[in-house]
Design goal:
The structure is a single chain. The chain has 397 residues and is an alpha/beta fold. It folds into two domains: 3-46 and 291-394, Aspartate Aminotransferase, domain 1 (Alpha-Beta Complex), CATH 3.90.1150.10; 49-288, Aspartate Aminotransferase, domain 2 (3-Layer(aba) Sandwich). The protein has helices at 8-11, 17-30, 49-60, 73-87, 101-113, 130-136, 156-162, 185-195, 255-266, 274-285, 292-310, 346-357, 381-395; strands at residues 36-37, 96-99, 119-124, 140-145, 167-173, 202-206, 231-236, 249-252, 325-326, 336-338, 341-343, 359-360, 362-363, 373-376. The termini are far apart. The structure holds 4'-deoxy-4'-aminopyridoxal-5'-phosphate and glutamic acid. The site of glutamic acid (GLU) has 10 residues, from helix 2.
């Protein structure tokens, strides 16, 4: 037996670096090491009680059979309502597909939209799974590097230069995982100016962090003229409602794309978990201020972490306006030997922090930026203060 007997598909795939680092941190913790895990992007809050109650009620109401593949009709209505209330987007229920996490929503879209060799533009840094999801669908990820000095945002000129006759899609998240950058209406409009010249290019707009935005209003690119007909708006309840393990994501898209995703999902996994879907109806109908305590806490922690990291020489920072990550450029450490460890790249640095500071982060290489590491601040203030102190001590000789 050997991995050579596995498919080329899986052998050619990278393991999710976020999940791998979280597993490694868990393993070390179980072995008795005092690890502070800042690798995984998941809120450390409990699910709000009113959502838990809805799930309990759904069990008592015997929501135990298969749901429609694309989601319960009243959940799709609730999603239509959410898109209208929060994003000013008008979708019909037949444009909505509910899936097992936004990750499955993204995988569905890749599988129904991409043919072999189709290019997908990924402004880098991008969320860790985009490139492997695209590759699984036989698409070709085309990374467009952005710099910390440009707040990790792709300009219209960069987009234009990356377009070829093979370009099929562009995928991006705003607020961005991992950089925390938020595209303004003006910046989205400037990208749309380029896209309007290329009517066959589709957009995946991953808005899963929309509520975790400290800069002001979230803007959906589907709201920019000419974009609605070719945008797949991806969202989910993992981040806003701290429901990561409940696995509900969804899309709003042109009907023909939604239909294709439903067909694909129907041969793969069927409808998403029934109880979690019922609870999501309650979550999405609740006023947004029900989750404002979490957003306020993230904002406070961002400022805390920026302040503490800013005191450590060698960490170059942008000011993330959303999500719950900082993405410092740590290339100043490359080529140095610290406490006996030689640091040649961001992966070496992340391993060094894990071993020397007992702090788990993720290498930027996994996100398409080899100069940075990602630190999640979805952790208590006390553990963030302790983690930053350990990092400071580890890198100061
Ligand atoms: N998109 C982005 C940008 C993410 O950060 C994540 C996970 N954290 C997802 C999609 C997938 O979310 P889920 O599958 O939990 O809905
Ligand atoms: N998306 C989260 C992260 O970026 C969770 C892990 C994952 O799904 O890869 O850390």
């Amino acid at each position: 037996m050997s991995t050579a007997h596995l498919s080329d598909r899986v052998n050619g795939m990278a393991t999710s670096a976020t999940l791998a680092m979280a597993a490694k941190a868990r393993e070390l913790k179980n072995a008795g090491k005092d690890i502070i895990g800042l690798s995984l992007g998941e809120p450390d809050f409990n699910i709000p009680d009113f959502i838990k109650e809805a799930a309990k009620q759904a069990i008592d109401d015997n929501y135990s059979s298969y749901s429609p593949v694309d989601g319960y009709a009243d959940l799709k209505e609730a999603i239509v309502g959410k898109f209208s209330r929060d994003n000013g987007l008008h979708y019909e229920p037949n444009q909505i597909v509910v899936s097992t996490g936004a990750k499955q929503s993204l995988a569905n879209v890749a599988m129904v939209m991409l043919n072999k060799g189709d290019e997908v533009i990924l402004p880098a840094p991008y969320w860790v799974s985009y490139s492997d999801i695209v590759k699984l669908a036989e698409g070709v990820p085309v990374e467009v590097p952005t710099s910390i000095d440009a707040d990790f945002k792709m300009t219209a000129a960069q987009l234009e230069a990356a377009i070829t006759p093979k370009t099929k899609m562009i995928w991006f998240s705003s607020p961005c995982n991992p950089s925390g950058s938020v595209y303004s209406a003006e910046e989205l409009e400037s990208l749309a100016v380029v896209l309007r010249k290329h009517p066959n290019i589709y957009v995946v707009s991953d808005e899963i962090y929309e509520h975790i935005n400290f800069a002001g209003t979230h803007v959906s690119i589907a709201n920019i003229p000419g974009m609605y007909e070719r945008t797949i708006t991806v969202n989910g309840v993992s981040k806003a409602f701290a429901m990561t393990g409940w696995r509900i994501g969804y899309i709003g898209a042109p009907e023909w794309i939604a239909k294709a995703c439903t067909k694909f999902q129907g041969q793969n996994t069927s409808g998403a978990n029934a109880i979690a879907q019922r609870a999501t109806i309650t979550a999405l109908k609740a006023p947004v201020d029900k989750i404002s305590h979490m957003i306020e806490a993230f904002h406070k922690r961002r400022d805390l972490v920026l302040g503490l990291l800013g005191e450590i020489p060698g960490f170059k920072l942008n000011i993330p306006e959303g999500a719950f990550y900082v993405f410092p450029d740590v290339s100043a450490f490359f080529g140095k030997t610290i406490k006996g460890s030689t640091i040649n790249n961001a992966s070496d640095f992340a391993i060094f922090l894990l071993e020397e500071a007992l702090v788990a982060t993720v290498t930027g290489e996994a996100f398409g930026n080899p100069d940075c590491i990602r630190i999640s601040y979805a952790a208590s203030e006390a553990s963030l203060i302790e983690a930053m102190a350990r990092i400071k001590a580890a890198v100061s000789e």
